[in-house]
Amino acid sequence: MTLQRAPEEVAAGSAAAISLRGVVKRFGDFTAVDGLDLEVPSGVCLGLLGPNGAGKSTTMKMLTAQALPTEGTIEVLGFPVPRESKRARAAMGVVPQQDNLDEELTARENLEVFAHLYRVPRKERRRAVDDALAIAHLTGRQRTKVDDLSGGMRRRLLIARGLVHRPRLVLLDEPTVGLDPQVRAELWGLIDGLRAQGTTVLMSTHYIEEAERLADECALMSHGKVIARGTPAELVAEYAGERVVEHYGPPDRLAEVERLARAAGLPTRRTGPSVSVLKAETIARRWRTGWARTAWDVRPIWKTCSWC
Ligand SMILES: Nc1ncnc2c1ncn2[C@@H]1O[C@H](COP(=O)(O)OP(=O)(O)OP(=O)(O)O)[C@@H](O)[C@H]1O
Ligand SMILES: [Mg+2]
């Protein structure tokens, strides 16, 4: 099941569906978005990658005028935001990171409220809600109160709600977080369908495999700025490499691995009790070609690396 849009709607739209120039967002003394320049061409699926706190959700909120920029200019579907945000919002579907469904209403009622708010013509409303329920595989649970749906069902309903008015642009903030692999794969199929119809998609995600599967291009955000942009394959090759070796151990051991990796020019990433050494495929190459000055340059990293 896909949402059909009229061809002239697909054709409509300027070169860039989203344009942010020099955008800054401060919360008091803290700068969450720091001079962000980002363009998303029409019809493209752009993956927004970056660590916790990079500013991805804040950027999305500024596109919908839920958050106001401190500086800079924003255009969405040709409308300046926040000045004409109502018109932009009317053609935009938003799936927020935080679930904000109405728990007292049923799944169907949640969609009906949105179809009404987004001015889906009365005659088409029932069909639009039926289609959205089918997309979310919730037809059989349409009379269930949101409070009684599982976490995965709520996530699916949240996505369906963002699509009920057949938007030209969809903002998905970590759309598949917490979903089981099967539902995630179904949602990937759904996002594929949107792209095939020419819908522009801006999607934040922590899952590189999700970006590789769905995104035409990715922008890597860090500290409120885009620090790299390219196809998923280009970014993986440049920033992560083909292999990642993960080390677990006490903090002093992890610090030692980080120090050695840095000295060998390998990027690392801390993830709670572990440290990941990126671009690990180069370790064996360096070792074989004598690039490493001594075995101890790479051995502590290399020794847990079974495939070297
Ligand atoms: N309303 C707010 N008041 C103060 N600080 C905020 C507010 N909203 C966001 N921030 C801060 O701005 C920074 C960016 O937050 P944001 O939610 O945009 O990050 P993110 O990239 O979406 O992270 P995540 O991957 O964890 O979702 C964080 O340090 C966050 O604490
Ligand atoms: Mg976020």
**Number of distinct beta strands:** 13
Task: List low-confidence stretches.
Answer: 1-14, 291-308
Evaluate the radius of gyration: 22 Å
Oligomer: single chain
Ligand identities: adenosine-5'-triphosphate, magnesium ion
Strand content: 15-25%
What is the topology, as strand order, of the major beta sheet?
A: 6-7-8-3-9-10
Q: Please state the overall shape, judged from the principal axes of the Cα atoms.
A: globular
SSE string, helices as H and strands as E: HEEEHEEHEHHHEHEHEEHEHEEHH
Largest sheet: 6 strands, mixed
Distance linking N and C termini: 46 Å
Count, helices: 12
Structural class: alpha/beta
Mean pLDDT: 85
The residue fraction in helices comes out at 25-40%
Structure description:
The strands form 3 sheets. Strands 6-7-8-3-9-10 form a 6-stranded mixed β-sheet, with helices on both faces. Strands 2-1-4-5 form a 4-stranded antiparallel β-sheet. It has a 3-stranded antiparallel β-sheet with strand order 11-13-12, covered by helices on one side. The chain contains 12 helices and 13 strands. The protein has a domain at 241-302. It has helices at residues 7-11, 56-63, 85-90, 107-117, 122-135, 151-163, 181-196, 208-214, 232-240, 251-263, 281-288, 295-302; strands at residues 16-27, 30-41, 45-49, 71-76, 79-81, 92-95, 169-173, 200-204, 217-222, 225-230, 245-248, 268-271, 274-277. With 308 residues, the chain is α/β, with parallel strands linked by helices. It is 38% helix and 25% strand. The chain starts with 6 loop residues before the first helix and ends in a 6-residue tail after the last helix. The longest helix is centred in the middle third of the chain and has 16 residues, at 181-196. The chain binds adenosine-5'-triphosphate and magnesium ion (MG). Adenosine-5'-triphosphate binds at residues 27, 30, 32, 50, 52-58, 97.
